[in-house]
C-alpha cells in the first residue's frame, strides 16, 4: 500500500502522482466510463499531468486515487471539490475507471472513506453531488453511502443525443454513519478481536 492516505478493507486512497496521468487519461477517455460523467472533451496525457501537478497547491480540491488492494492497481479517482470552509460543504466526485472492477462494492467503499475524511477530518457539514437521472448504479452507490435525493434539474444535461435530468443528492454531517468503527472491527486480526 504505497503512500496510502485512507485505508478500507478492499481499497485504499492515495495521492495521485504525475506518473499516474497515462492511466487516468485512459480511464477518462474510455467511452464506457465517460458516458456517465460530465466530462466530454478529449483528454491528453499532458493535460492530465498538468491537472495533477496543479492539484498540489489547490486548496479547493482534495483528489485521491482509488487503489484496489487485491492487485495494488489504481482503478479510479475520487475527490471533494469546490471546498467551501465558510459554508462547510463540498462537491463529491468519483469514477472507477476500470469497468472490470464495477459491481464489487468498491465505489461505495471509496465514497464512504471520503465521507469519513470530509466530515471527520475536514469538519464539513454537507457533501453534495449531481448525477445523471438515468445513472441508476451511481445513485444506488450514493444512497448506500447515506446521500439523499434532494431535487431534480429537469433536462439539465445533454448526453448521447438526448436530454437527461440532473439529480441533486446530499448528505449532512448529522446523517453520516462513519465507516471507521466498522473498519476497525474488520481490520482486527482474529486474535486481537478476542481482547
Ligand atoms: C458508478 C460507479 C462509481 C459505481 O461503482 P461500483 O464500484 O460499481 O459501485 P458498487 O459496486 O459499490 O455499487 C453498485 C450498486 O449499483 C447497483 N446497480 C448496478 N447496476 C444497476 C442498475 N442498472 N440499476 C440499479 N442499480 C444498479 C449494484 O447492484 C450495486 O448495488 P447493491 O450493492 O445494492 O447490489 C462506477 O460504475 C463508475 O465509476 N462508472 C463510471 C463513472 C461514473 O459514472 N461515475 C459516477 C458519476 S456520478
TrEMBL record:
Top-level taxon in the UniProt lineage:
Bacteria
Q: Which UniProt keywords apply?
A: Transferase
N-acetyltransferase domain location, by residue?
11-174
Q: Keyword Transferase: yes or no?
A: yes
Report whether Transferase shows up as a keyword of the record.
yes
One molecular function GO term is: acyltransferase activity, transferring groups other than amino-acyl groups
InterPro entries reported in the protein's UniProt record: Acyl_CoA_acyltransferase, GNAT_dom
Q: Which Pfam families match?
A: Acetyltransf_3 (PF13302)
In terms of Gene3D superfamilies, this protein maps to: 3.40.630.30
Q: Which PANTHER family match?
A: GNAT-FAMILY ACETYLTRANSFERASE, SPERMIDINE N(1)-ACETYLTRANSFERASE
Specify the protein name. Answer: GNAT family N-acetyltransferase
